[in-house]
Amino acid sequence: GSWNAYEANSYKQAFQRITNIFRSNATNIATVWCVHPITNLNNMLSYYPGDSYVDWWSIDLFEPNFMNSSNTQNFLNEAVQHSKPVMIGESCPSGIGVDSGQQSWNNWFSSYFNIIKNNPVIKAFCYINRNWKTSSSLPQWLDCRVYKNSTVGNLYRNELSNSIFQHVTVPSNYQITAAQPSGDSYVRDGSSSNVN
User: Fold this and answer.
1) Nearest to 44 by CA among 23, 13, 75
2) pLDDT exceeds cutoff 60 at 181
3) CA distances from residue 138 to 66, 82, 93, 141, 144 in whole angstroms, order as listed
4) Whether pLDDT at 60 is above 50
5) Terminus-to-terminus CA distance in the chain, angstroms?
6) pLDDT at 122
7) Looking at the predicted structure, is the pLDDT value of residue 3 above 90?
8) 3-state helix/strand/coil string of the chain
């Protein structure tokens, strides 16, 4: 959208160029075009690089009002028209968190899982399981780690037991060669940081 300071045509050209470079060097990649539902469909589509350059459509869902907004539904409907699968690229209950248990669930998670279940075009989701309170830039997003509240954690696990979700089993011989953080840490640029 316009908040990113990129002009639509320049953005599309850059996306197309990068896609061409990737595809000329590898066959095992997928490109993802991601939007935020803060803007309407026509504005979103002005940044669309074209079906031949995009494998997946993606939408970010943070605020609860975007779960059922016309911008979100129009985006999902348009993805169907373009025969593109959708992933929720980034998501968490920003400003709600998990600390209020059932109320947190009712205010965000319930709508989140409903939009996934009611829109079969959504094939994947990415949830940011982070304590934003420790973030220097977004502490108002609160603690979104599902395991930090037993009610939210149990309801989340229950939702994931639905047969629409596929789960990956990691082979016993699978080895991770990168240093892995412990506890509530994450890896950024190869270094571990604690995010209590």
Assistant:
1) 75
2) no
3) 19, 35, 12, 6, 12
4) yes
5) 33
6) 97
7) no
8) CHHHCCCHHHHHHHHHHHHHHHHHHCCCCCCEEEECCCCCHHHHHCCCCCHHHCCEEEEEECCHHHCCCHHHHHHHHHHHHCCCCEEEEEECCCCCCCCCCHHHHHHHHHHHHHHHHHCCCEEEECCCCCEHHHCCCCHHHCECCHHHCHHHHHHHHHHHCCCCCCCCCCCCCCCCCCCCCCCCEEEECCEEEECC
Residues contacting 148, CB < 8 A, separation 6+: 98, 99, 131
Q: Are 92 and 64 in contact (CB under 8 A)?
A: no
- pTM of this structure: 0.83
Print burial letters for 127-147: b (CB count within 10 Å at least 16), e (below 16): bebbbbbeeeeeeebbbbbbe
Single-letter amino acid, residue 187:
V
* Sheet (strand 122-125) strand order: 32-35, 56-61, 86-91, 122-125
Name the one residue in this structure whose structure tokens are 């209950």. 93
> From CA 71, how far away is CA 141, in angstroms rounded?
22
Higher pLDDT, 193 or 81: 81
Rounded to an integer, what distance in angstroms lies between the CA atom of residue 2 and that of residue 88?
20
Phi-psi region of 189 (alpha: psi -120 to 50; beta: other; left: phi over 0): left
